[in-house]
TrEMBL record:
<feature type="region of interest" description="Disordered">
    <location>
        <begin position="54"/>
        <end position="84"/>
    </location>
</feature>
<feature type="compositionally biased region" description="Low complexity">
    <location>
        <begin position="54"/>
        <end position="74"/>
    </location>
</feature>
<protein>
    <submittedName>
        <fullName>Uncharacterized protein</fullName>
    </submittedName>
</protein>
<dbReference type="InterPro" id="IPR027443">
    <property type="entry name" value="IPNS-like_sf"/>
</dbReference>
<feature type="region of interest" description="Disordered">
    <location>
        <begin position="1"/>
        <end position="38"/>
    </location>
</feature>
Length: 376
């Protein structure tokens, strides 16, 4: 069975020391004379060498409402003997877990209150408490200065599993509820991943060795604001109230109806590669949308998402047993169909997770599928 984590894991549990340098430039420089080399490849390598503050980003403007559909995700209860995971994951790439998920009902309100306290901190203190050590730390899409009066729209905190801040000055910041919520969502996500693997036919690398996976708690504040894009296997997004969310799936933009006290599950790009293209995916994190221009309820803008993802040193490749990952051939008229049916050929090349994550995060390829270049 092909492995997605062939190298020793890179732990993200204690990242908040000195600010980390950008990831190292890949040893293999782009060869523009190669058949596989393209201008985007060369640009990606160039951007990888730049500090994050100098990286270019594409427009984050959403598509017009005329291209957005309204969707009602299926509701799945994992305690059912045969939950309809296959149709939801292979046709949509997202679904609701409700009403019998195991997350304690007292945790989400407490975690949301803790998140609000973070966003209410002065801007300079947010940066001091949570220095940017990619992908962890404090990030503001709209603000590049230390003005404490700037708008908070588009802010986010990416936290590790321990929700740690700079210990010297965190004594008055209580993140215990966020940490507990992240832990419970992580357990639920691993269970969903195991169920998906059994349905689609792959075995999660974290089943026997949890260090081959890692979790990030992404707390965002901003209505109608597309946030950063980071690769993940499964995303769990706790919904405190009945509110619509907008997400970008393989089928295009969709406004997804919300359900109070439910968990919206989205399948990410890594899950699609692991399944050899069988699973649909969602790019990035669903964002809350306001139907009322006068909605000033700060708590309604906050999203709390748990992303189960990979350590940076991982190599990503399909995990379907029996695939010949090294067999790359020129397809004929019905080649793709026959390979999909037999499952004997990999539809994706193996690639470095670190390089891929750096590219999609800093270039913010929201409208262009970043997996295209790795398809066979």
């Amino acid at each position: 069975m092909a492995s997605s984590t062939q190298n020793p894991p890179h732990h993200l549990s204690t990242p908040h020391g000195a600010t980390a340098a950008p990831p190292p430039t890949p040893s293999a420089q782009p060869n523009l004379s190669s058949n596989n080399a393209t201008l985007p490849d060369a640009l990606s390598h160039l951007l990888h060498r730049l500090p994050p503050t100098l990286s270019l980003s594409l427009s984050t403007r959403r598509r017009s409402s005329s291209t957005t559909t309204t969707a009602t995700p299926p509701v799945i209860n994992l305690s059912d003997p045969t939950p309809p995971l296959h149709s939801a994951s292979t046709q949509l790439g997202y679904f609701h877990l409700t009403p019998h998920h195991p997350i304690s009902p007292h945790l989400p309100p407490a975690a949301e209150s803790a998140a609000l306290s973070l966003f209410n901190l002065p801007h300079h203190r947010k940066k001091l408490l949570f220095p940017n050590t990619w992908p962890l730390g404090y990030d503001s899409l709209d603000n590049e200065d230390d003005d404490d009066d700037v708008s908070t729209a588009g802010e986010s905190f990416c936290l590790d599993s321990s929700c740690s801040a700079e210990s010297a000055i965190e004594s008055d910041i209580d993140l215990g509820s966020l940490r507990e919520l992240g832990s419970e969502m992580e357990k639920l996500g691993l269970k969903v991943m195991e169920e998906l693997g059994s349905v689609v036919g792959f075995e999660s690398p974290g089943k026997d060795d949890p260090t081959r996976l890692c979790s990030l708690l992404w707390v965002s504040d901003g209505m109608n604001k597309p946030g950063r894009v980071y690769p993940y296997v499964i995303g769990l997004h706790y919904q405190m109230r009945c509110q619509k969310y907008s997400l970008l799936s393989d089928s295009g933009w969709a406004n997804v109806s919300g359900q109070a006290d439910s968990v919206l599950v989205t399948l990410g790009d890594i899950a699609q590669v692991w399944s050899n293209g069988k699973l649909k995916k969602v790019r990035g994190i669903p964002m809350p949308i306001s139907m009322d221009a006068n909605d000033n309820n700060n708590s309604s803008c906050i999203t709390m998402s748990l992303l189960i993802t990979l350590p940076l040193e991982s190599t990503v490749s399909p995990l379907i047993p029996g695939l010949d990952i090294n067999a790359i051939e020129e397809y004929h008229e019905d080649g793709i169909d026959s390979i999909t049916k037999t499952g004997k050929r990999s539809l994706f090349r193996s690639f470095s997770f670190e390089d891929y994550a750096w590219r999609v995060y800093h270039e913010r390829l929201l409208f262009k599928d970043p997996l295209v270049r790795y398809r066979v």
